[in-house]
Design a protein that fits this description.
CATH architecture of the largest domain: Alpha-Beta Complex
Helix content: 40-55%
CATH class of the largest domain: Alpha Beta
Order of helices and strands: HHHEEHEEHHHEEHEEHHHEEHHHHHH
Oligomer: single chain
Radius of gyration: 25 Å
Low-confidence stretches: none
Number of strands: 10
Structural class: alpha+beta
Mean pLDDT: 94
Strand content: 15-25%
CATH topology of the largest domain: 3-hydroxy-3-methylglutaryl-coenzyme A Reductase, Chain A, domain 2
Bound molecules: (R)-mevalonate
Number of domains: 3
Length: about 425
Amino acid sequence: MTTSRISGFYNMTIEDRRTHLMDTAALTPESLLPFTTGGLSPEAADHMIENVVGLYSLPLGIALNFQVNGRDVLVPMTLEEPSVVAGASFMAKLARAGGGFTATTADPLMIGQMQVINVTNLYEAKLRIYEKKNELIAEADTIDPILKKFGGGARDLEVRVIEDSPIGGFLVVHLIYDVRDAMGANAVNTACERLAPQIESITGGKVHLRILSNLADRRIARARCTIPVKDLAFDDFSGEEVRDGIIAAYAFAAVDPYRAATHNKGIMNGVDSVVIATGNDWRAIEAGAHAYASRSGKYTSLSTWGKDADGNLVGTLEMPMAVGIVGGATKVHPAAQAAVKLMGVKTASELAEIIVSVGLAQNMAALRALATEGIQRGHMSLHARQVAIAAGASGELIEKVAAQMVAEKVVRIDRAEEILKGFTS
Ligand code: MEV
């Protein structure tokens, strides 16, 4: 069984990390090859989007220590921001002490929308659609035999009346579609296009837009974790201080949209990087997350932080998670396939459960830092290395120049150049 704990991983060379990953996750060198090469050939890319002239790389790191629903999982994260992988790994270690992350998902139900305009009587048309609901669902159910074979298909149909808008009233028909292990956009869009002529003949109106909604609020992923209060203590901070600091930080995001946006951005640092590593559509996840965060009419935190009866810190996160493991880039991008393989996930739900757990871990990492020593200290050493490189340092001088800047608490290119000159002249 894979363990997600690999000691000293941080200090290994890239080559050694790959070897350890292979051994720990019982993978062949071939299965990790896409991480070595970046995975995608220009020829493959040319089939993915238009006007391709090349490729664009991002770092791929592995978050350690994650345990989700009792299973250890090594989590691939693709992003450019320092401290995120380290933060998630450290928080996963703390969460492990409290039993790891417990995560669930709702059925993979996506919503397809049809906008019906030019309807004479909206309320009558609405009821006429409901009278034909079973036929419409049966028709939509036939569009994707593969999905159907795996237990997916059309599940329900709902009609909303929009009384007024810049063009007056119209109807919105929601088709609820179980997309199983797919992200689902293709199936849902096709089904909506298929139903349009029938909806038009039932209502006498015109079906205008036919497209899935990224507010995938039927496809929610949920994760919770408990951190023993004693494990939160560090430096001069007691566990209780850290816990209460995190809870107060959450309270800020709960009531203030300006803070909630940044708080949720921290969650998305974790979420998006796994979504990207697995070839999923992160714009869809972002759109769904922020729309969901506004569902009460006021934008708020996606997570909650509080304590249990024993005074331990308890975190929860609930958000839409429309990710797939079949179709699209997940299927054609070799690095995305390698990422899915590394995590050992067999269903889109399992992937969603890991992603939401990483989001929660990442949120905790940010709040813990903000509520105690501030965010800059953690960022400082990696940032200092980047500044040292920008100043011209190479090899072991990178570490030396960076360390001196951190010690001086001055991380600036001009200072890096001076320090470098001191070492080289
Ligand atoms: C930075 O990428 C993310 C944070 O701003 C999140 C937060 O403030 O909670 C640190």
